[in-house]
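Protocol step 4 of 6: structure prediction from sequence.
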Amino acid sequence: MSDTTVPPGIELGTDTTPVHNPYTGEVIASVPTVDAGAAGNILQQARCGRRTAAALSRASRASVLERAAHLIDRRAESFAQLIVSESGKTIIQARKEVARAVNTLSLSAAEARRNAGEVIPFDSHEGSEKRQGWFTREPLGIIAAITPFNDPLNLVAHKLGPAIAGGNAVILKPSALTPLSALRLVDTLIEAGLPEEIVTVVNGDAGIGAAIVAAPDVRMVSFTGGFATGEAISRTAGVKKLAMDLGGNAPVIVMDDADLDEAVASCVSGAFWAAGQNCIGTQRILIAAEVYDRFRDAFVARTELLRVGDPLDERTDVGPMITPEAAAATRAKVDTAVAQGAVLLCGNDVTGSLYAPTVLEEVPATCSIWQEEVFAPVVVLQPFTSFEDAIEQANAIDYSLHAGVFTSRLDRALNAARLLEAGGIMINDSSDYRFDAMPFGGFKYGSMGREGVRFALGDDPAQGRLRQPHHRRGPMTRARLTRS
């Protein structure tokens, strides 16, 4: 693969960062990088982009997004291969991500045409009978977008699509581990007619990121990533809009009246999709004591059938983690948990960046694997004795994106949806479900704003909550990761 192109208008030194294939370890590209000294030039280009973006009509913005969606759809296999090569997702998972990115851009095009504002009925108030008014949604200006490695195409589309639809310029800082899909997406937007100064791609270290975040010209920072980085951004940003998705530690409750075959299949998929590197991935499964042994045995058996290996092989269920260091760190966390009393049921084997799907039980509540987002193919099984006990355990963590509950009783489902502290609550599905048009975001500490195109475009002063019933197809004949 040839070296990536330099963002227009940016003076670069000779520094480059290699991009590695997580499975083979080979260098697949070298990306030019900048340091904090380039911030002035970057911001100057973004100011030009702001003026250009604001001048684009809604029809022009929508047409660009529609054409880009069409181009990506036509080149879907090429985009999927690129995702595999830089992120290690399996080819089947990468194809699904491409399809979702097409949908995200199409949704953004639709919102560009209709998210205009509304008429205010002044004459409904005494003293204003002869007045009329309206408000419109206007561009913020320059938005800084910082994205992680785990969805290198669609999460970038979720930042760029709504921003472009709203008439904004963007400074995009993709993950240094997976910048290539982002660069190709921006190139595709430009091919579709987007003026090149509207999106400036910046590859560099935390210094250039901090300089951009702190700049007064930047009116909003949209960040997806870890809590520590999110806290640092909030301290640096100053007075501006912040939208943050800071991860989760998703619980799923399996009641004694649940369809266990469906629950096992859904939770295996939810726990190990994308090698567990998934902010809504199922991490803690709380199972009614009456059915705990049956669920545990079936879950472990199904997990052990998963094929781990080459992500380009369509038979592979679980590909590599993003780096060998990430896999080694995961094993160290599991070893620590076992030393503290956890019982290893399967997995915890490492070969390079490949980490075997791992199931634990009897994990102490003080253990980091119980308390924190593990972001790896590791899941914890835990029995509960009552519905109230399950809710208490599920809500014990300080941050939350999604949760799930399996039950055949409507009253239990509705009670769980009311009591679970999560941004999205999936009924009869694992936590790992997201549709790109739905409101998406966390519910407790550190969560600000919503994604989901329409919800990203509008102000969201209150935390939204989504109840999403979903009924999965019948049980699978072998252990394959599936996703709606």
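Step 5 (inspection) to follow. The domain at 250-427 is CATH 3.40.309.10 (Aldehyde Dehydrogenase; Chain A, domain 2).
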